Amino acid sequence: MQSAFYPCSIYNAVSQGDIKKIERLLKSGVNPNVKCQTKGVIADILRYIFFPLSEKGQTPLDRAIQDMKEAYNLWGSPIISNDIITLLIESGAVIEKEKIDYLPLIFEYASKEVIELFLAKGAFNGSEEQSRSIVLSALGRSAENIQEYEEIAELALSFVQSKELKQEILDRVFLYWSYSTNKMAILLKQGANINVTDENGESKLMEVLRAIPFTRNAEEIIFLIRNGIDVNIKNKHSNITALDIINRQKQKYEYDKVSSEVIEKLLYEKGAKSGAQLPK
Description:
This protein has 280 residues and is mainly alpha-helical. The chain contains 15 helices and no strands. Helix 9 packs parallel to helix 11.
């Protein structure tokens, strides 16, 4: 179907991930900001016949951003979506500033180049709400490419003016969303408190030790101990420590004896004690 008759042909090309077709349509003069229904061709044709001036619907850029998240969840890579988003913006697609949900998604899934393109087009509105959202998204993204992760983390954190808010976000992500030594190292470098605790007074070390079996996370446990985490932090309700958690886990579940011995040796070297041995 030709674009002159069906303006939403570019939207469909985006939904199909057909970058060559998108390029052809843009060169032929198709409007990259057309708003289309998500229910298919018939719905779009009826809309253009009866409501030609309607502002409702989704743009090709909206769809590309949506598909970027889905592509990552399905295949672990949004590479094609990055290229499509770049092509659309460079061809005149408008980034609607009132859509503050754009940037968090971009910071979580897009390449650094796409993020910089959005920022250059004025997508950041300067609000504390948006700053918080993009930092949480940036720090929560995959750290598979550790260099890109660090660069995007630094970029996102630069938008947070409040030192207290920055510390709060770093500590929260470190405690709940960091499950690799690479990500933990970057967060600590940016200022996360290694001894931050949750609502029960438990540290990241205690949280990781609660995994079943705890020795599956030996690399993360050893990283935390060697980087100076307080091994005697106590649960504020039960007074148990990291050592108590290990002993309980060993009684209930199978575990890797070699890794367990390495972890326990490191704990004892750092002065680890049972909660019963520490002052109340």
